[in-house]
Input
Amino acid sequence: MSDNKKLYLNKIQFKAELDRCLNCKTQPCMHACPVNCNPQEFINHAKTGNFDAAVKTITRTNPMGQTCGLICPDKFCMQACTRSRVDFAINIPRVQATILENFRTADEDYSQIEPKAKSIAVIGAGPAGIAAASVLAKGGYKTDIFEADGQIGGALNLIPDTRLPHEVIEKDWKFISDTPLISLHLNTRIKDIRELAVKYDGVIVATGEPNTARLNIEGEELCLSHMEYLHHPEKYITNGRVAVIGGGNVAADCAMTAARNGAVQVEMFVRRRLSDMKISKSEYLELLYNQINISPLSSPEKAEQCEDGLLLQIHRNRYEDGKVTPLSDSSVRLPGFALIIKAVGSYADDKIEDEKIIYAGDCKTGGSTIVEALASGRTAAFVLIEKMEKTA
Ligand SMILES: Cc1cc2nc3c(=O)[nH]c(=O)nc-3n(C[C@H](O)[C@H](O)[C@H](O)COP(=O)(O)OP(=O)(O)OC[C@H]3O[C@@H](n4cnc5c(N)ncnc54)[C@H](O)[C@@H]3O)c2cc1C
Ligand code: SF4
Output
């Protein structure tokens, strides 16, 4: 078993989770999974000690099974898990990550694949691009992945190492990429997608959401974007107070990182209610455990420099019938922050209409989750293959 006790299940926990599975014939866990991974099947294989088969079951539809196992939110398979009606859901993602960490011994087998004469370009090596490339290579299509960054993983690289070490992303990548059918071109930003569409038989655009959403407040330039902060947290280490604006899992990662890096106090300002925060229960508990203050129904109005650092002015909101409106005369001036981080979302570049171009992942659907981006990348690849086969 892996030494990394925090990220994977130990032998006793692993066996306990396998034993708790009710082997539901209707497979609700599989139907709830965007990539149709089949926990009932891999748990059964693992129970009988057939770990090769368990690995094959997971990797059949999920090219980033180990990464998913560490960060997949509990709203898919776990929410559907029948065991939650008895006590609590099987920790399916962790079972999956533990199986791949300990029992994956070989890479994807492409030996039976017949290469096709067509070649595809995939832009972006985040989960959607990786999933698309995996389906295309399994179909025999030569696939060039162009990635602007110097490493694969896309937005996953912003997730703190304590939740997702980069080596896990590389391990999943190594599993699918050991074939001449896939070529990765790092540090290659594509400026003209149409030009690529002329050279290739099809293009899958999986460029995520590279632009940070604005707060549109006075003094916004004093606030750091979540992308800059999470890319280089070492540049912004402080033992002062840190404000984080936003209430999703990106904001939670910023808050946790600041707390871990020594901030004396971290406060999250969330526009809606606590129950509206888009974070999992375990993330919420982690915020509480790390003594992160959460101010719900609070919106920023202004940031400014003050004597002891940065001042954030906020107002309070009223919540009624699902609507959030500002409460009048509720402005509060909060001085003394060392950092104000904005983590209120991001957005995609404009899209191009072209027969040969298909969009996938967050740039198509808006901010989602790893498993939804994987599903979207797979679907894009299947759609493209069908199109190419029709015109062959
Ligand atoms: C801080 C943070 C925490 C998160 N936590 C979770 C979590 O706990 N669980 C979860 O399920 N999801 C989480 N997510 C969301 C998840 O990471 C994304 O949904 C997923 O990565 C989207 O995949 P994608 O492939 O569509 O886009 P991305 O991962 O954004 O990948 C897009 C890639 O395209 C590249 N690119 C962009 N433009 C170009 C260009 N012109 N040329 C070449 N390459 C280009 C980018 O460099 C990038 O590598 C988190 C995201 C963030 C930012
Ligand atoms: S829903 Fe839960 S208990 Fe039922 S087979 Fe899936 S993992 Fe096992």
